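User: Second chain of the day. Same drill as before.
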Amino acid sequence: MGKVLAIGMISGGLDSTLATRVVLDQGIQVRGVHFNTGFCFVHHRRQIARPDEPPERLRNPVSAVGALFDIRIDSIDISREYLDVLRHPKYGYGKNMNPCIDCRIMMMRKARQIMTELGAEFVFSGEVVGQRPMSQQKPTLRLIEKQSGIEGRLLRPLSAKLLPETEPERLGIVDRSRLHDFSGRTRKPQMALAETYGLSNFPQPAGGCCFLTDPSYARKLKDLFAHRNPEDCTRDDLMLLGVGRHLRVFPNLKLIVGRDEHENRFIDSMSSDRIRLEAVGVVGPVVLAEGELTPGNLTRAAAITARYSDGHDQPQLDVRFRMPNSEGKLTVQPMAPEKVAEWIIQ
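Assistant: Same format as last time:
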């Protein structure tokens, strides 16, 4: 008879790595799954990587876990359907724009499906009781299990001794005495366990890598949803929120301004169906304009583009613009910096 199989939910952070090691140490075979929502800092950093970016910031942490333990980890893209969760979270948002409860329910449902398809005995995660204020309190952990249909088959090895006994524990598949009772936001127990295992070099020592928990990103997302129908917002719209300066100039005009050549390159790759602006003859940003195209809006966008270029102290500057069906050039006076500052979405 073969080894017992468990499905591990792997983020690439310290907690899920430790949980995997705890399960493996009980002689259980692990098949990892990683759900890509499209909002991970690490994935985004790799897309706009600078030449001097430290290699450890660009490595794929999920692949690193797979290599460390010699296990298979399937990366599953759920970014399109995740947009519906983000637009309409049944259980609301956390402190910023993170729909953590709905997110966990969605992922747990998918993990349960994989468990059933592969004939695995249970699913495990690196969750720790009390670590996250929204999704990792005991009542919420129970809610997530119930709503995802995985009650009794979801093991949380790092906090199992603080939670009701699961089916694999009751059946003796998992030895409860070898599980842990970590709780709260402190990382000391995890770091001590990692030292015991000889594990190091984790890119997400505090767990998680989601843009939606970042206050700056959340403000930009709230602005976007306030001025656009959330149903019309695409993955590219949401990805662009993590790049450049964002300026809400008018209710019907927003600009995205690149801050360096790497952001310019990334923004340029998203410009095919948007209004693109760039100063002529001087070093400056690639700028995308979103909203209603009126002569006044276009002139204002060009003046702001000139402001952020190296020609900002010139009385006039040429700015080239390109739209999906036309292109042209405007001569404008660079906008005053104090005026531009009023429109930045911080």
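Residues 100-118 form the longest helix (19 residues).

User: Great, on to the next one.
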